[in-house]
Amino acid sequence: MREVDLEIVSDLAMIANPHAVKEQYQKHVFNELKENPDLAFVAIDGERVVGFVQGDTRGRMTTIEDLAVAEKYQGKGIGSQLLKIEIDALNMRGAEIVAAEVHYKNARAIPFYYEHGFRISECLQDYFGIGHDAFILKLTLREG
Questions:
Q1: What ranges do the domains of the chain cover?
Q2: pTM (two decimals)
Q3: pLDDT of amino acid 144
Q4: CATH number of 3-140
């Protein structure tokens, strides 16, 4: 991912984060890109960004901060490819556990993560703000 991708990536982020305010979220994506450029990837069709994934590390626990694919491109394996690339990058950083935080309104993401070995570990009320609950899914890469 590059800084020039931030506008379209912010648009895509709204798919996975229906509670977010685009302008504020764009700052979040930018900050994550600055902190973890080796954990931010885009999928491209021609010259157009059609999906992205971004991760973060917190010691042995790592997080898929965002993963989104344009609706027109969903169901074509792009999300799976992005997730695989991200997990490989997190593995390179020594990740033991990968967590994905899914807004309850994005419940269709849960089967996607299940297909890749993630399991629901908890549901957190108001995690994304009042009235915005989250499902936390985790994947164990290696035992600590």
A1: 3-140
A2: 0.89
A3: 60
A4: 3.40.630.30
